Amino acid sequence: MKLLHREFVDIYTQPRNNKILVESRSHLAYDPPMSDQENQLIKQVFRATLTVVGTVSLLYVLFESSMIVLSTLIGIGMAALLAPVVHHLESKYQVPRFAATIAMLFGLSIVFIIIIFLMGSIIFDQYESLRDSAPEIIAAWESRWDKLVDSYPKAAKALEKSQPLGLAKTTMSYIGAFMTALVSFFTGLSLALVISLFTTTNSKRYFKGFVSFFPESKQENVKQNLLIAGKVLRKWFSAQLVDMVAVSVLTMIGLWLVDIEYWALYGLLAGALSIIPYFGVIAVMTASGAVVAVQQPDRLLYLVAVFGITQQIEGNFILPKLMKDQVHVPAAPLIFFMILAGSWFGPLGVFVTPPLTAIGVALYRKNRTGDDATSGSD
Predict the structure, then answer these.
(1) C-alpha dist (Å) from residue 207 to 83, 102, 201
(2) Cα-based distances in Å from 87 to 95, 96, 103, 109, 198
(3) What is the pTM of this model?
(4) 123, exposed or middle or buried, with CB in 10 Å at 0-12, 13-18, 19+?
(5) Tens of pLDDT along 324-376?
(6) Closest C-alpha among 351, 15, 377 to residue 188
(7) Nearest to residue 249, comparing CAs of 202, 314, 203, 333?
(8) How many helices (H) and strands (E) does the chain have?
(9) 3-state SS, residue 12
(10) Cβ distance 265 to 123 under 8 Å?
(11) Positive or negative, the Cα torsion across 219, 222, 226, 228?
């Protein structure tokens, strides 16, 4: 035991081994600090991870509560539309903001009820009739397809991949789903009305409170962006509302004059889907043409003529006037975002996508180029 102890002491007392041990201990105890570049890289990775996780979590929450979120957005948008009128009534006629808001919403509700009373029963009766006739219409197209296969086998084989019958069934199912989704749309719209009531009544307080969340150096910029967003929203809504009503009324009148059976339903769909550039009216004309070709084949050309004339009136007279001072939104990305929002959130998603896209374009132009996108045409 003493021999082992002496050898152990000798090892630590030898100069060479002692130097190695000291160096080894100093290496284990000393950890050189990271450079600034390494620290910055770690921070960037950490921030990117938090951003991705936060974005995914936010999208999941929005998707799961889409009805509430979209109704809230619509309510805030309606408040932005009503706020200037309410402010005018308050400043000029000394009407309290709450009373002015109630009066405006009550007036809009009366107008809406009158429209529903005049046209609602006709539209829903036509929808019920069309839904009952859908199996016969599909069977008729299947019969025509079988005849086409027998008469022109080569042409039928070439068209087999496109599956026109499947497309027709899908189109009819989409129309039915659209009408069914209108119920949820009006439910969300009712919630939006309540939100707009309280938002309009205290719009100044909410505006200042939202701006105060940002640093003082950013508050003026945030305020200007909010004002631009409100201006773009009011212009877009007024223009889109006039365009949808004009297209719907013109289509209804034209189809009624040429004695198309479901004239009111087709006119409503044409006006509602006119919010989707190009493809909206094409979808309605294709679906209605498929029905008319079976039930009223002698009226098919009249149907196409009515849609064509309506589109000419809209494109050459209505839209140039309405879009004179509007923000120009490229059609391709708008259609993509509308289809994406519609697949995720339904009709409410389609409804809120165009104004949000227009606001995004206006804010981008203002902050990147310094150009006020709401001051003129593009």
Answers:
(1) 11, 20, 12
(2) 9, 9, 13, 20, 14
(3) 0.67
(4) buried
(5) 666 677 777 888 888 888 777 776 677 788 888 888 888 888 877 765 555 54
(6) 351
(7) 314
(8) 16, 0
(9) helix
(10) yes
(11) positive
